[in-house]
Amino acid sequence: MSEKLTQRTAWNRVLDKLSGRSLWMLHYCTGCGAIELPPTMTGRFDMERFGIHPMVTPRQADILLITGYLSVKTLKRVILTYEQMQSPKWVVGFGSCTINGGMYWNSYATVKSLDQYMPVELYIAGCMPRPEAIISSFNELIDRIGRGEANSWKDYYENYDFYRKNQEHVFGGPINTRTDVKSDKETFRIQSAGK
Amino acid sequence: MTNEQDIINRIEAAYPDAVCKKKQERRVEACLPPDRLFDFAGRMQSHWNFPHLSAISCVDWINEGEFELVYHFWSYEEKILVSAKIRIPREEARFISITELWQPAKFFERDIHEMFGVVFEGNDDLEKYILTEWEGPPPMRKDFVTRDFANRFYHFKEYEAEWMGPQQNPQAADVQGGSNE
Predict the structure, then answer these.
(1) Is A158 domain-assigned?
(2) Chain B residues within an 8 Å CB radius of A108
(3) Considering the domain boundaries, does residue A195 fall inside one?
(4) Interface test with chain B among A104, A105, A120, by most B beta carbons within 10 Å
(5) In the predicted model, what is the mean pLDDT of chain A?
(6) How deeply is A186 buried, as exposed, middle or buried, from its count of CB atoms within 10 A (0-12, 13-18, 19+)?
(7) Does pTM top 0.90 for this prediction?
(8) A98-129, pLDDT tens digit by residue?
(9) What is the reported pLDDT for B170?
């Protein structure tokens, strides 16, 4: 990243502070961890007091919450979803499964570490994490966004070749996601980095 | 209403080489020679009032070099489940399809073809079913070691925390050992 981008103007600081306070979350509920989300969203833990609200479409969402294991088949759908989301966007890996496969660590059909296929901003460890852990990690994410440190989404543009290579390794061939990642990269004026 | 013994008598009268057994209440097992199965299934459907094919399952008997195909037939009126078992050789396993009798058998056979590699002659759709991205051997065969495959194919994160020595993390050590082989 160039020097210019790392220096935050006062306007950027205000923007970051505000954008951290209105996050919309797309939850990809493939695993069992999704059962912890209803209490997080509803009255008891009430995610919305932090400005986080569930969103139904990828194009309007800021956070992609992966709740649990991903099989190779669902990983393809997650990548399609992730590339449709507008930057800046943050992936939160929920549960042990996204970290190292969790209890499916020796399965042939589930992918192990999510950050090989898309940049992950935060991991929530546990099998499964309680709503308190989700709330706590969202607070951490809000703080990071406010400080301008939540830049994992840029990593996808910087190391696009690395991520695409890993994705194609798992799928056994090229995939067409119909999203022009390279022109997005030019929009944000991000340079490639070797990884 | 017929009971289990009536069903067994009926099967044994029609197929003298079948070995039948009452497994438990409302469960009958019939071991048949493979060439009798199609005839048996047709008779179950049209003559003996077993219109419902619940499932086809497959068992890999690797030491005997055989696959066991189990056809489960259910009768709504007798309320009895008959499991017809046949054995076919494991190498280049082929068997006749029963899709002419039951259309739903297509999906069961397609699944068994994907998971065990059994080819069903007469089934025109044996494409990939659930594992659409899968290139390797049929994964439910006993000689496919899923752990070795996972260690070889996927990337594992190496995780070391200061509070956690290498002895206290047996799973990470296991993964490490597997990938070195």
Answers:
(1) yes
(2) 136, 139, 144, 146, 149-150, 153
(3) no
(4) A105
(5) 89
(6) exposed
(7) no
(8) 998 888 988 999 999 999 999 999 999 988 89
(9) 52
Mean pLDDT for chain B overall: 87
Q: Is residue A194 part of a domain?
A: no
Closest alpha carbon to B80 in B165, B5, B181: B5
Q: What CATH number did the domain enclosing A94 receive? A: 3.40.50.12280
Judge if ipTM > 0.85: no
The closest CB to that of A109, out of B131, B151, B171, belongs to B131
CB neighbour list of residue A121: distance below 8 Å, 6 or more residues apart? A90, A91, A92, A141, A144, A150, A152, A153
What percentage of residues in chain A have a pLDDT greater than 90? Answer: 51
Q: Is residue A182 part of a domain?
A: yes
Q: How open is the CA angle A132-A100-A181, to the nearest 5 degrees?
A: 90
Q: What is the pLDDT of residues A26-62, one digit of tens each?
A: 989 888 888 899 999 998 999 999 999 999 999 999 9
Q: CA A171, A65, A98: angle at the middle one, nearest 5?
A: 55
Going by C-alpha positions, the residue among A74, A105, A96 that lies closest to residue B150 is A105
Regarding predicted confidence, which is higher, A83 or B159? Answer: A83
Contact B67, B54 (CB under 8 A): no
CATH fit for domain B4-127, picks 3.30.460.80, 3.90.280.10, 3.40.630.30, 3.40.50.150 = 3.30.460.80
Domain range for A88 is 3-187
Domain ranges of chain B: 4-127
Residue B31, helix vs strand vs coil: strand
Q: Which helix (H) or strand (E) holds B179?
A: helix B170-180
- Residue A124 half-sphere exposure toward CB, CA atoms < 13 A: 26
With 60 as the cut, is the pLDDT of residue A74 above it? yes
CB pair distance less than 8 Å for B155 and A112: yes
Tally of structural domains, chain A: 1
Q: Do the strands B119-121 and B66-74 form a parallel or antiparallel pair, or are they unpaired?
A: unpaired
Cβ within 8 Å, pair B134-A72:
yes
State how far the Cα of B62 lies from the Cα of B138, in Å rounded to an integer. Answer: 14
Over residues B83-106, the pLDDT tens digits come to 999 999 999 999 999 999 999 999
